[in-house]
Amino acid sequence: MSSAQVSEEEIRRLILAYQQYQSQAEALVRQINLAQLTSAGLDRAIEAVQAMDKAYEGQNMLVSIGSGSFIHAKLASKAKVVLNVGAGVSIEKTTVEASESLQVQKSEISEGLKKMNDVLSKLDGEIQKIQTILAQYEQQVQAKGGGQVV
């Protein structure tokens, strides 16, 4: 679509599409950030399960309680790990099962991140196309002695 053929009505439609793409991109960035936080939490959980598997029962350890804070604890048993499976439900698994389950979740999050980044890239491409058309239209209007675009 050349800028010489763009009507004011089409410019209004492009501006509306631009705003919608911007909103979608912002929402997607928020989802990506949440997925990255989840992925980082899964990494920490995987590391903790692997470290626990190497520990011995009765070993003194520091247990993270969040926000960089820890409590002193003794490992009572390393036979089972309690995993949250969603909706407030937790189940016990062996360290091997827990590690595998966490790895599967990590893979699912990674795949979701890839898809979201692909969609974000497409949205950014559309936004850039619209910006180019609007910039050309604005130059055309200014060259004719007009005011600001819409």
How would you describe this structure to a colleague?
The structure is a single chain. This protein has one domain (3-53, 80-140): Helix Hairpins (Orthogonal Bundle). The protein is of the alpha+beta class. A two-stranded antiparallel ribbon has the order 1-2. A two-stranded antiparallel sheet has the order 3-4. It has two helices and four strands. 64% of the residues lie in helices and 16% in strands. Helix 1 (8-54) packs antiparallel against helix 2. Strand 3 (81-86) and strand 4 (89-93) form a beta hairpin. The model has no long low-confidence stretch (mean pLDDT 90). The protein has helices spanning 8-54, 95-143; strands at 60-66, 69-74, 81-86, 89-93.
How do the helices and strands line up, and which of them pair or pack?
Blueprint: H1 8-54, E1 60-66, E2 69-74, E3 81-86, E4 89-93, H2 95-143
Antiparallel strand pairs: 1-2, 3-4
Helix pairs in contact: 1-2
What keyword list fits this structure?
150 residues, two-stranded antiparallel ribbon, single chain, Helix Hairpins, two-stranded antiparallel sheet, alpha+beta
> What pattern of helices and strands is seen along the backbone?
HEEEEH
Give start-end ranges of low-pLDDT stretches: none
Reported for the largest beta sheet, the result is:
2 strands, antiparallel
Shape: rod-shaped
Number of helices: 2
- How would you write the strand order of the largest sheet? 1-2
